[in-house]
Amino acid sequence: PFEVSVSEIAAWDAAVRAQPTDLMKVWGVDDILRARAENRVGLIYGFQNAAQVGDDLGRIDVFADLGVRVIQLTYNPANHLGDGAMAPENRGVTPFGREVIERLNANRIMVDLSHSGERTCLEAAEASTRPISINHTGCRAVADLPRNKTDAELRLVASRGGFVGIYF
């Protein structure tokens, strides 16, 4: 996953270079504002799982230098960082997952908990020293599905300065 991800980043960087009047790579908030002002599409690089990190925290530094700004800790199943929404054990964040969160924070990469299990979400939101996101989820109070977030998860993210994106 690491090599493929680096290759994909290079491909998107090439697309941005090929279409500079339409596209721009987003490194920070100023770029989002500039993209809007210039009527360009701002691309925020992110991963919907942390498999690309493997067991090497240094890869987080590499991805930060390549412009990755959002990394989701888990997808639906469990991984070596924590349990996803479909992992029945709901074990929470692993010790290595805590190290990853710390390194993501240090690199100003947003921790995304969209597909995390409930305990993983709550523990990761507490462990993070920076605001986190659940950038795509539903409300479990409205639709009782494992992928949807509980009121406790939604409130914790908001109380720590993060944001939640709700899908239909």
Give a structural overview.
- There is one protein chain.
- The strands form 3 sheets. This protein has a 3-stranded parallel beta sheet with strand order 3-4-5.
- With 168 residues, the protein is of the alpha/beta class.
- Strand 4 (68-72), helix 4 and strand 5 form a beta-alpha-beta unit.
- It has helices at residues 2-18, 29-37, 58-65, 95-106, 118-127, 151-159, and strands at 23-25, 41-43, 45-47, 68-72, 110-112, 133-137, 163-166.
- The chain is built from 6 helices and 7 strands, in the order H-E-H-E-E-H-E-H-E-H-E-H-E.
- Helix content is 39%, strand content 15%.
- The chain starts with a helix and ends with a strand.
- The chain is globular, with a radius of gyration of 16 Å.
Layout of helices and strands:
Elements: H1 2-18, E1 23-25, H2 29-37, E2 41-43, E3 45-47, H3 58-65, E4 68-72, H4 95-106, E5 110-112, H5 118-127, E6 133-137, H6 151-159, E7 163-166
Helix pairs in contact: 5-6
| SSE ordering | HEHEEHEHEHEHE
- Main sheet characteristics: 3 strands, parallel
For the termini, the CA-CA separation is 30 Å
Let me know the number of strands.
7
Question: Which stretches are low in confidence, meaning pLDDT under 50 for 5 or more residues running?
Answer: none
Secondary structure category: alpha/beta
Q: What's the total helix number? A: 6
Rg over CA atoms, rounded to whole Å, is: 16 Å
State which percent range the strand residues make up: 15-25%
Please state the average pLDDT score: 97
Silhouette: globular
Strand order of the largest sheet: 3-4-5
Helix proportion? 25-40%
